What does this fold into?
Amino acid sequence: MDIDVQGRLLERLLELRDQRTTALADTVRRQPATSYTDPDRLRHEVRTLFRGHPLVVGLSCDLPTSGSYRALDVAGVPVLVVRSEDGTIRAFLNSCRHRGSMIVEGSGTAERIFKCPYHAWCYDIEGRLMGQPMARGAFDEVPTEELGLIPLPVAETGGLILVRPRADAGPIDGPAHLGELAPEFAGYGFEDFALFDERTLELRTSWKQPFETFCEAYHVFALHHDTISREILSTPMLADFYGPHGRGVLLGRKSERLIHEDADRYTLRNTGNIVYWLFPNVVLSMPMTGHAELWQVYPDPDTPGRCSVTLRFYIRSSQATEERTPFWQRMIDYTVRIVMEEDFPQQERIYRGLASGSHPGPVFGRNEPALIHFHRSIDAALS
It folds into this structure.
């Protein structure tokens, strides 16, 4: 992030702190419980948001070299992303054109060829069919060019990889989709990061609720009283929005004292936490320790009360030293303990209340502007 932008954000935070307030929405919002629990609503969300919208599926460093690939499940769609020989990112339906078997699992580097485990049909990293062992002319009636992997719209912008998991969808304009945030992301240099660890958790709650966890800090002083509240202030919190996306900024508990002691030594990056809300389902957190966390939330397409959350924990390549490994291991363990043992169980308990049919739904206060913006953006997309 540009140093001047950091300075302006820091000034706004300190001004809100002096005024004993925080970023405020224009009004309170009452959110119906059925928006979390209704199966028809979920099907509409999956069809519109998780098929029609570009989704952030990773960072540029996930595919560092030609042949680097990653297979992932995007709300029921098997997707394969790979860096081609010319350095661009390509995305395909991870499904063989013969019988539909998944071509590859996990991540790694392909030696120019992907081979289906079912009948050994082979595809190159550009998605072209290269071989049909033992077929002996059985498929000659179908032109080879019609049997390549099915391409999906993909873009790489500002160090983020975006995929639209629907074959008949139009191309992705990455800079237009990310708007003013695109150059901000580019400034982090995500191509110079490296994946340190990854964790996945299956939750009994709506997919929207894990996302909501990161949309406000109002709960920090209470839910995290004995953990992160010792390091992060509940207020103030900035919330700025760019189309359906947004950016939130929090101050570290020691920030004011440090800043006032020697303002030239401190920037927003080392005195506060920055969190980006990437509509509809991804949170990119940039804590003051200098690492990056990519949180991806995907619904179970058939069950409103089930979802999966994946945390991908990145550090700068220059910090990936043997001496620093224990520190980063402690950091991810600490993060997992707070979010996956404090935040997410709370969301599961909330869902049980909403699904009971007796609770009308949450009330979002003016001090929770990102929650209000998130649900407004969903409503706009669905309409």
